[in-house]
Amino acid sequence: xxxxxxxxxxxxxxxxxxxxxxxxxxxxICLIVAACSYLMVGxxxxxxxxxxxxxxxxxxxxxxxxxxxILALIRKKFLMSFGIFCGGVLSGIGFxxxxxVLWAVTPPxxxxxxxxHPIPADLVCLEPDESFCEEDVDSTDASTxxxxxxxxxxxxxxxxxxxxALPDGYIYLKCYEATANIRLSEDRILKHTQTEVSHHTVFGxxxxxxxxxxxxxxxxxxxxxxxEVWHHETATNKExxxxxxxxxxxxxxx
Length: 254
Prior knowledge:
By secondary structure, the chain is of the alpha+beta class. It is built from six helices and nine strands. Strands 3, 4, 5, 8 and 9 form a five-stranded antiparallel sheet that branches.
């Protein structure tokens, strides 16, 4: 081993020993980050980016604890490595305890969208299907071509559309609160219901089932949703509405 390599090795050992000397700082910072999160929630501090930054900071220092633990083992400082291990366990337990307390004592804010938009008594609304059978679709009755049914979670629904011949392009679903004409979950519903139309020349289903989620509102708060099926034609870049129905729906509880 050359003299330069020996000097580099000695320097690295000194740096490692200096870093290990302050090993207790990392679990302390993890606990401080967890405590700050608790205090911020308790005082209704807003700003999701702040909580995201604290979570990233916690993960960084948790990773540093793992690095320090390995370095202590390499330097055969077994008592120190045991202390780092205990500090990591305690900071992790502290973080999860505080997270559990926050989850237990801080109920999620209820989305009152459904309550704020009651269904008028004279508005006729359909119920989403509980189950679906293609035999319910009548090729001569366009009112049966749009099928929306409940999925396994409240606020989540399955969508399928039947049609006669359609030009190539795609279909998708638009949903509106029927009384105030408010567009619902626009980007998400578009993304999850967009279905390619290619060589659709005879009556039948356009693609398979699409699962979409209505995010406005909460479980149990039913309101009127106007579901519209739209077709985008690739050749002309034009769109037209194929059909619409009004359903009683509820939002998904986040």
